[in-house]
Design goal:
Number of domains: 1
Low-confidence stretches: none
Distance between the termini: 52 Å
CATH superfamily: Survival protein SurE-like phosphatase/nucleotidase
Largest sheet: 9 strands, mixed
Radius of gyration: 19 Å
CATH topology: Stationary-phase Survival Protein Sure Homolog, Chain: A
Strand content: 25-35%
Helix content: 10-25%
Order of helices and strands: EHEEEHEHEHEEEEHEH
CATH architecture: 3-Layer(aba) Sandwich
Mean pLDDT: 95
Shape: globular
Number of strands: 11
Number of helices: 6
Structural class: alpha/beta
Length: 253
């Protein structure tokens, strides 16, 4: 299997190395990651300026590639430049932090996997959900390898990807695996005005979770209960129920 591995935490992130070590026995793993952290970059791509690609090394000295661009850029560069469009699987992660509910739309990790799906490659995004910055990558790495084998055997529908969230616990403490739907999360977002030492205004974004999804079938609740959540995500974002209702609307040009 030829695997393209990327992330949004940057080429030096420990989760990237954990994923590579777990995936190495499955075949050839090419690592392309941002040269610096690019969390919450969504599906951004680099336009109207040069996109740099250079050789790098991971913490254990194994070879990798680093780019000045975004996680989605990493997938495009890996696919077109480094792997000559011969890619069997795209893996994004392992991300340090949750990518649950509506957060998917902000996530560089999930959108890197979506870029892989757009290119027609089966793709997986993997994140570890921890508290107070404590991240246990081992179980997530092992599960990533297991899921990669399963996807190789079963395949994924076109224009889809899998979004995986793993509780930051020991393997013994993880209760199992649930196939889930994307949950619904809402934040009380704030923009705080501050002043720099030169008297100039700047702004700081913050917020707190005000609405959580307690439905048993959601990714949010599965992880809360100590399960690994695996959510199939599709590129087609059409609101089909609303579309059906709109057929009865009367409107003129």
């Amino acid at each position: 299997m030829r695997i393209l591995l990327t992330n949004d935490d940057g080429v030096a992130a420990p989760g990237l190395l954990s994923a590579k070590n777990a995936l190495d026995p499955l075949g050839e793993v090419v690592v392309v990651a941002p040269e610096r952290p690019r969390s919450a970059s969504g599906h951004a791509i680099t336009l109207h300026k040069p996109l740099r690609l250079c050789e790098a090394v991971l913490a254990d000295g194994s070879p990798a590639w680093a780019t000045s661009g975004t996680p989605s850029d990493c997938v495009t560069l890996g696919f077109d430049v480094l792997m000559s469009q011969r890619v069997d699987l795209v893996v994004a992660g392992i991300n340090a932090g949750a990518n649950l509910g509506f957060d998917l739309t902000y996530s560089g990790t999930v959108m890197a996997a979506m870029e892989g799906a757009i290119l027609g490659v089966p793709s997986i995004a993997v994140s570890v959900v921890g508290e107070n910055g404590q991240m246990e990558y081992g179980p997530a790495a092992a599960f990533t390898a297991n899921l990669a084998r399963l996807v190789e055997r079963e395949g994924l529908d076109r224009w889809t990807l899998l979004n995986v969230n793993v509780p930051s616990r020991s393997a013994e403490e993880i209760r199992g695996v649930r196939f889930t739907r994307q949950g619904r999360t809402q934040y009380d977002e704030r923009v705080e005005r501050r002043t720099d030492p030169w008297g100039r205004a700047y702004y700081w974004l913050s917020g707190s979770l005000v609405e959580d999804d307690t439905d048993h079938g959601s990714d949010v609740q599965a992880v809360k209960e100590g399960y690994i959540s695996v959510t199939p995500v599709q590129l087609d974002m059409t609101a089909t129920q609303l579309l059906a209702r709109m057929k009865d609307w009367e409107i003129t040009k």
